[in-house]
Fold:
Amino acid sequence: MYGYSGKLLEVNLSRGTVAEIPLGDPEPLRRFLGGSGLAARLYFDRTLAQGKKPEPLGADNPLLVLPGPLNCSRLPGTSRFSVATRSPLTGLWGDSSCGGNFGPTLKYTGYDGIVFTGTSPEPAYLYVDEATAELRGASFLWGKDTYQTEDELIARHGRGTRVLSIGPAGENLVRYASLVNDRGAVAGRAGMGAVAGSKRLKAIAVKGNKRVELADPKAAEAIARTVRAKARESMTMQAFTSLGTDAVMYLGGAMMGDVPTRNWRTTLWEEGYQKLDGAAMAETILVRNAACLYCPVGCKRVVKVDQGPYRMPPGSGPEYETAAALGAMCLVDDLEAVAYAGRLCDLYGMDTISCGATISFAMEATERGLLRSELSWGNAAAVIGMIEKIARREGLGDLLAEGSKRAAAKIGGADFAVEVKGLEAPMHDPRAFHGLALSYATGTRGACHMACETYALESGTVFRPELGLAGPFENQTGQGKAGLMVKAQDWGALLNSLTICQFINWNYTATELVEATNAVTGFGYTLGEFMETGARIWYLKRGIGCLLGATAADDRVPSRALASLEQGVTAGSEPDFELMIREYYPLRGLDAQGRPSRERLVQLGLSDLANLLHGQ
Amino acid sequence: MGAYKDAAQLYDVLGTLFATLRDDPEIGPKVQASGLVIRFRYTEPDSEITIDCTKSPLEIIFGPNDRKPTVDMSMKADVAHQFWLGKVNLVAALTRGQMVAKGPIQSIMKLLPIIKPAYALYPKILKEKGLEAMIT
Structure:
């Protein structure tokens, strides 16, 4: 077995036991790879296939932490890992991808992933190295933020220890709580931190140097060299190195109309975009950039503020999504305040997208008289105060900790809560790139642009001629987007199962990524088989969502994010969502209820899922 | 045939555009403050324009010269024409190599707020020069 150690850890938190599970037959790995794909298969086998439907915050909801097969290959961009389970925010399938150094270090301990079940009677953390895997008491860490937790566990276990932890938000079951490693590398989306909190799992500390054998190390290194060279030449990668992902704030906001602003109501905020842009950050609060393991780009920001109300020591700085969600969405144009708000989210362990979007929703609810609060557009102090309250579930924070969908159900305003299936939409506007509407509507975890490559394809950041996606694609039309979406979703499912960075991935051709996977695993995929693997993973996640209650009615996008704006660069642009979804369903092989057809599932070797969805 | 009939016409149109930006009371100082030497190299027709913001007032130089550029942008003249009409997806053009930009990325990104107002100016300049037919 190449690219894998061949075993998982199973941790029963109720019983306090830790056991090794041999992976045995490599065929499931070939069919589901790792990361969120393998997580979906393991989740399905342990729950739905056995007639169980665990509540998201219930003891029987397994929490899976899975790196991918490429993690220890030194191939650029392969340090990510997935955290997955049934989401407390959506009630459906949830997975969250995370960078940093935790993923490869977990692999270097000799395990391909961890499955947590049960609930610990007391706060606990899992310590794993090459010789040890055991649960330890974490009462001394409970209540501490993610930086403090990381520092204490590194002090305890020594240099080289990598820590993935929850903060107070996870402990308090904030429905969009995250897990954090390396001081700001975050598994942010879908509330995986709340599930860890419900299990009283404070942290996982890993330390190891065990090699993982590759099928063809020379071939892997040759591809790595090619990709590194391309990354050096790429303007996009250069921009990410210098300015972070926030390099696109002005370009996206002022020139493309892609930055949701004032709760998706305008893109006329040119000065604000300039103030929050990565270039402004580079000239003010940026200390240096930082990189995940084996990354030649280093898009992460380390920032500090020396004085004033937002004074903070060097640490994680805002990437684009954070700057947009806590800045543009709330009309806060003070970069120091936005950076501080983002830092608080990292410390408390909360997804900045859902947090910023929910606060923005609450601002509008306050404006409309649905809510009495101190929240108002551009009020940075109120945003920061509310982040504290959400993390602690104090006052209005208790309601907003539930996310915008649940908050709207209680106070009204569903028409301006921009979420799909309960997951707040990320910071890209479908009126700038119409395919995003379909991407949000049909994402397997809710509104998401990272589960598929549509956004990168539509914006022209990457083209995939080998997949029949040579482009360029007209961004403001629904024509042809259904076909694009199907391939882009299959490809995205592969990326999240290989746990490769979606930015660095742009420097691999499709063929190079197949060859890289073969060089690591020895699976010998053709491009066709590779794409079929992506399709299998996508359908499995979709099927899990259906079994957990999602229907065709949930494949929609709130009109707030579709209705054309009167002014700005996207004025008059309105995605033809009905056209896209009408064309998409038959191309995807979905029936009127949104279920994958039996035929397609059987063809992909998912008969067990087909039987559960359609009967024997 | 391309949008511009020859290098002289390109110099006339784009020279007017850059001079208008330079003389604009809001945009001009921002361009000047960039302190950049920006060289645009075009093909079909072969031509070159350099904007030297190290000089005050900034200089616009047509044709090859010995100024050392901080930012070097290369493209077909047709791509430049479409770009100033606001019809080129900048990201896609860079990805496909239709536009090649070299230089410190931070400086290049800082040009964007300067570029944006030019989208409105360019068709006006074409009209003033009786070149409405080029606005397609």
Notes: Chain A has three domains: 7-206, 246-417, 435-614.
